[in-house]
Design brief:
The structure is a homodimer of 99-residue chains.
Chain A: E1 2-10, H1 16-28, E2 37-43, E3 57-63, H2 66-74, H3 76-85, E4 89-98
Helix pairs in contact in A: 1-3
Organism (chains A, B): Spirosoma rhododendri
Pfam family, one (chains A, B): Dabb
Protein name (chains A, B): Dabb family protein
Chain lengths: 99, 99
């Protein structure tokens, strides 16, 4: 499996419209058939020193393999999402893990 | 859903025995029935400035809800894993996301 984990920090997290716009953009990705499973979440209320809850959205995607992940990266819905939503975030942090 | 994402940095990443011991410890967690799905991975070979591939292991767990996550945290197999393996890692970074 190939797990693609993305964290987004909004430029203006205090603006609900920006939350809504990024959430809508993330939801638009779920139709991409290269994805096996996708989870779109926001920070849980768990609080320990080792827990980072500073982000605004998490996108965790599971793919069958790297080829499926690469197909997702080039998919028109993904490219449209980046073009439409990139102005909303200040920072993105990504981890890719294979097993 | 409740997604629990953990990254581990080994104290001695150059020692294969430490890799193997942590991998065995992580594998021992998969028998905990509170978990819906679990992925245990190592860094993919993707390389972009926004991608963090500095970690040694990723553990991504999906739970039905926070109650299931909390049951996992207190499960004897999880407590045994921490007791047995905590000396192996230098740093742990956790993100919890709910949807």
């Amino acid at each position: 499996m190939f797990v693609h984990i993305v964290f987004f920090w909004l430029k203006n997290p205090e603006e609900q419209a920006n939350h809504d716009a990024l959430k809508a953009g993330l939801d638009s990705l779920t139709g991409i058939d290269a994805i096996t499973t996708v989870y779109i979440g926001t920070p849980a209320d768990t609080r320990r020193p080792v827990i980072d809850h500073s982000y605004d959205f998490n996108l965790t995607m599971v793919f069958a393999d790297k080829a499926a992940h690469d197909a997702y990266q080039e998919h028109p819905l993904h490219l449209a999402f980046v073009e439409k939503c990139a102005h909303l975030w200040e920072r993105v942090h990504i981890y890719d893990a294979v097993s």
